[in-house]
Amino acid sequence: MAIEEKRTFCRICSGNCGVRITVEDGRMLDIRGDQDDPMTLGYACVKGLQGIAAHYAPDRILEPLKRQPDGSFAPIPIEQALDEIADKVRALIARDGPESIGGYRGGGAFLNNTATNICRDWLDAIGSHKFFSTITIDQSAKLVSLGRIGIWQGGRQPLAQSDVVLMVGSNPLVSVQGNVFDVRNPTKRMKEQRARGLKLIVIDPRRTETANYADVFLQPYPGEDPTLLAGLLRIILTEGWEDTDFCERWVADLDELRATVAPFTPEYVAQRAGVDAVDLRRAASLFAHESQRGFAVSGTGPNMSPRSNLAEHLLECLNVVCGRYQREGEKIENPGVLQRREVRKAQVVPAPRWWETAYQSRIGGYRNLLGDMPTGIMAEEILEKGPGQIKAFICHGSNLVNSVPDQYKVTEALRSLELLVSIEPYMNETAKLSHYIIPTPLLYERPDLTGFYAETMLCPVPFARYTDAIVPPPPGSAVVEDWRIFWGLAKRLGVSLTYEGVPMDMDSEPTTDDMLAIIARHCPEPWETLKSYEIGKVFDEYPQFVEPADADASGQFTTMPSDVAAEVKQVASEPAAHGPTVSNGQIFAYRLSVRRIREIFNSTGRNLPALRKRMPYNLAYMHPEDLAELGVIDGEKISITSDRATIPAVVSTDPTIRRGVVSMTHGFGSLPDDTVYERDGSNTGMLISTDRDLEPINAMPRMSAIPINISRTNL
Ligand SMILES: Nc1nc2c(c(=O)[nH]1)N[C@H]1C(S)=C(S)[C@@H](COP(=O)(O)OP(=O)(O)OC[C@H]3O[C@@H](n4cnc5c(=O)[nH]c(N)nc54)[C@H](O)[C@@H]3O)O[C@H]1N2
Ligand SMILES: Nc1nc2c(c(=O)[nH]1)N[C@H]1C(S)=C(S)[C@@H](COP(=O)(O)OP(=O)(O)OC[C@H]3O[C@@H](n4cnc5c(=O)[nH]c(N)nc54)[C@H](O)[C@@H]3O)O[C@H]1N2
Ligand code: SF4
Ligand SMILES: [Mo]
Question: Is the full-model pTM beyond 0.85?
């Protein structure tokens, strides 16, 4: 049969890189970056180029499996599996109520448009609030900070019109994720931005690939962003570099902010965060004084370290005091294509503090954050007996065992469930614990759209693209699309699904295209037209401009509400000295900081030989002088001990890491009682406790700047 070449885009991460795939007889032979793709300009990373290997991996699950009494798995027809799961769910609801049913959306579901919200919609339909997701172990501090400061309807100043970007703990050149940064071939776009004159300030304990392009680079200890950002605000407000007109009109409490950050003198900040006071001043000046437009933005670094909500709050305060928002009449670079357009007026929505009236968990009094239960209390919600205890759980596109902090506790919780279902294409560590595994098609086997969920944040232009399936699932397989599983369960339970706000017909099963058309219903062009653009389209003939404020607009930003002020005071009362950290009564010499690596996407990709060859396990990157001091050599195995656990790791010398810091990625390791480092790597989530050190409001665990000690394993 003829060999064809098909154009589509990768969806392993949110980069949506355009690719060309050679197909013969329904089987993919070759994949490469599409040089003619106007968005991503031929870029495809090492993971994306393994996309075909991922589809044909020998450990891929191709039919639904049911765990047997002896622990092995046996195939089960899909209709029977759904009948049995629905029967169990029905019985649990009758016995313990709908709150006994929980679910989790992982990255695998997030990056698949028709799967993104289906688990939440299903839980809504059966009347359960127990929806968890990666959001609350990622960057939900951003939601908390908007919830406390307020929201500028006009949005941030876009990259294309910015003189300066301040990036805190974010490495888009590797992660291909950057809030409001351009990740369509990020290195090339970075070079383009620099060539047109963009100034860049990077704050990161590691001299990252992104930091290599910085005009000012600050290399603090991880976990010191609240101090650093308070210090930057102090310099700006002391020098009078704020946007006074903007602040006068739109900020309710600038004096409180000024007074609260007063203790954060450059000397205090420099000493505590381990940076140079001169560099701190250069950063403040470049951001607020020498530049007119731009924004401060963060990635996972500060959002995962202690006091993440405070760090994110102070970061947003930088945007507020410098008025770094779009004003009346300005063009919104990406008003969105697939999502419903938002009202964009040049005014403030006052702090909505959504959580204060939301559903309250019985654990720690935490409340839902925009419909998400905090994942930091997920294991407790399963383990803690009493009304509302979760007894059945659907793991949708996640590897909970490897990705949710406090691995011992998470594993114990998952093992205790009466029903655990994994909707998952591979036999990952969580699938191994499940009663049922329902495998799904992989990305090139299903139609999809470019990511709609965060489209305005992740793409700088109003772009959308449809792709059809490139190949069918492997012959003889019985994989089921994610949404179909939830639709099938809802139908069996006799409940109606409302999908993306649209009631679904529960009598005749829709197609995936029908589901995608619902997602795209706000697109300015008809569904069939959107589908017809082979390489997608930038919808720039439907511009949106910031409208004037309402005549009676009275909302203002609140930069220093009392809960935030109390926390800043607490930080200010701590000693300025850096060095050993005391955590829960013990002293630790190092801090472990989070990072991403090119080869592996969270825990995904470790089964692929080409990626394993490059990164067989997760290395502990350390500064050569630290290693010399410890008497450890490159490639030697060490033990990393926190106040929760000890894990092994092989060290790798890396002069880009700040001294006193160990930089190590997550997602590796196996089940706690079955991990061999050389085969599986180590689970850094084991070092984290969710019994303590949780943030207020979102229960975010301490996942970066984890206090640790290092010891030589061979001694
Ligand atoms: N210690 C520590 N822990 C962390 C982090 C950290 O930095 N440090 N980072 C956190 C963050 S930001 C995140 S987002 C989470 C990520 O955590 P997870 O969402 O659990 O990510 P993965 O482990 O990659 O699991 C994704 C799963 O989806 C599957 N999958 C792929 N495609 C599909 C599909 O189409 N359908 C379905 N159903 N499944 C599919 C993959 O096979 C994989 O098993 O980890 C968090 N955990
Ligand atoms: N290849 C690959 N790409 C990915 C992923 C992956 O696993 N692999 N994961 C995806 C996911 S789920 C997400 S959420 C995004 C995340 O995207 P990013 O947030 O860009 O993630 P990183 O590349 O880890 O960058 C975080 C940076 O924070 C720094 N850091 C750590 N602790 C601190 C701190 O306390 N303060 C400061 N200032 N910096 C700190 C680290 O050194 C690191 O350089 O990436 C996505 N892209
Ligand atoms: S950066 Fe890599 S994984 Fe992400 S979409 Fe592009 S090719 Fe796929
Ligand atoms: Mo994430």
Answer: yes
